[in-house]
């Protein structure tokens, strides 16, 4: 087993589960009124493949009836599954998309060993767009990619379509993903040229039966870059005509093209502000070009060089005043937290603050700031922390995106196991499942993933699920405990670099975020500091205002405190910080021990791969702990708390480390 099959292995059932499936022995049939089509064919082929693989006998008795009258897949994919009599299970919904999702859901249930005739599901997606964003470049490299090269072979497209792109679409369909942006948000205009539209068309045709619409990251300055115009001003009539013609050209090739994803006036990307126009002016101009055919997804990830007083405040300051100005087919895409995909951040204050705007949640599946693909970190608890958060403005974060969706920065590459680390598959899986239903529990998602992907033994699942659930907190503890953020190495974001303080823009420096000196540490975001707290609803801000009463997981995010400040454990802030680093290191050691005890439950290849990665993680957790402690000590001059091990090296050793070979830049 090399991991290529993902969670769609359909390993043969055994024991009672096999006996029940054999007793049912279904064949797949269509209800009268349901006619065939490419999407239904995918559902039928998947059921046939899955049932056979799980161990259903060739001689059939019962039936699985597909009752999805409308051809095509325009509906939202809601489906239900239930037994109508002792030998017939029906998958039903409005159109073929319902049967597609229903087929995968049924196979998931069967894979988990459920009694086929007792399966009853009634499901509808929580939000319309469940999307993956690829940060893949035209040359086959992947920004922040840790799973090899891009799966998109732009060189050989459109003549050759890699088989892997079909397997990719199938995996996405199995978890309800319905949209994919194929190229990096830092986009060159070349993707909008006719040559590339032909390539995109080939992909769109291949993915249509799997219910996936393609999106393109569009460079805002394209009318100048490739259109021969002197400007890209969104209010210029020639610019508007250019985009309209471009959209027409794309729709002629791809009638169900999803639309444009845009990173504008952010980290050097061009945008409407270059012409004194607002984000709404820019987004609405593109929205008019697409018309009712598609959607503009406009990213709120902005922070300007001019005002670096608190980066955490800038997206809100730029976007909230524009609430109500965006066209209906614009969605503003907001990262889970106000800075940048850190191991832990409070939820983004824009959620709840733009009631007249369709919003989308952006999470990062690829682990740019969480140890790349060599550290095991299950991210469902990270996303859930934001999704479940009550905004104090009439609902949770998940509720605020129900008219928009969720987009995850993909962690998929051409590595044989897709995601670099085997457990990173769980993050892809979890993102899709949560976008379908954000109220699923992290534990349930971890368990169903592990059962389908690794093995079904109950003791094994208990151990592996617990390991997964604690893994993200372990990363927080050994990298950035107590609400610290952005302490990673420059550019590649690999390893610790809390000492860095000399980069061109203040908010690129780890020292900007820690604000550590001889006296204390932490970023004051209360009224005495940047007052970022005031961007949250009063009920939420109240939770975080008092450092004595608040959840200490966010302590140094909101407060600058002296090193001898008393935490709730009774320890000084310094001792608590060291305690948490140590807790993180110990947690990784425990994960390695847990995994080691599972040898008999996992195939040798995947067992060894994971064991090797955990060794790297053990080593790097210590590195993070030691380098961080050595640095803080060089500032505060404090002795280590009693019993804490001294760092393995002095601070100069850690500062001298360099990694030109680090991937993903
Ligand atoms: C940052 C990444 C950078 C991305 C940027 C973004 O370091 O590579 O381009 O996010 O989201 O975290 O646009």
UniProtKB/TrEMBL annotation:
<keyword id="KW-0378">Hydrolase</keyword>
<dbReference type="GO" id="GO:0045493">
    <property type="term" value="P:xylan catabolic process"/>
</dbReference>
<dbReference type="InterPro" id="IPR011099">
    <property type="entry name" value="Glyco_hydro_67_C"/>
</dbReference>
<dbReference type="GO" id="GO:0033939">
    <property type="term" value="F:xylan alpha-1,2-glucuronosidase activity"/>
</dbReference>
<dbReference type="GO" id="GO:0046559">
    <property type="term" value="F:alpha-glucuronidase activity"/>
</dbReference>
<keyword id="KW-0732">Signal</keyword>
<feature type="domain" description="Glycosyl hydrolase family 67 C-terminal">
    <location>
        <begin position="419"/>
        <end position="643"/>
    </location>
</feature>
<protein>
    <submittedName>
        <fullName>Alpha-glucuronidase</fullName>
    </submittedName>
</protein>
<dbReference type="InterPro" id="IPR011100">
    <property type="entry name" value="Glyco_hydro_67_cat"/>
</dbReference>
<dbReference type="InterPro" id="IPR017853">
    <property type="entry name" value="GH"/>
</dbReference>
<dbReference type="Pfam" id="PF07477">
    <property type="entry name" value="Glyco_hydro_67C"/>
</dbReference>
<dbReference type="InterPro" id="IPR029018">
    <property type="entry name" value="Hex-like_dom2"/>
</dbReference>
<dbReference type="InterPro" id="IPR037054">
    <property type="entry name" value="A-glucoronidase_C_sf"/>
</dbReference>
<feature type="domain" description="Glycosyl hydrolase family 67 catalytic">
    <location>
        <begin position="114"/>
        <end position="418"/>
    </location>
</feature>
<dbReference type="Pfam" id="PF07488">
    <property type="entry name" value="Glyco_hydro_67M"/>
</dbReference>
<dbReference type="GO" id="GO:0005576">
    <property type="term" value="C:extracellular region"/>
</dbReference>
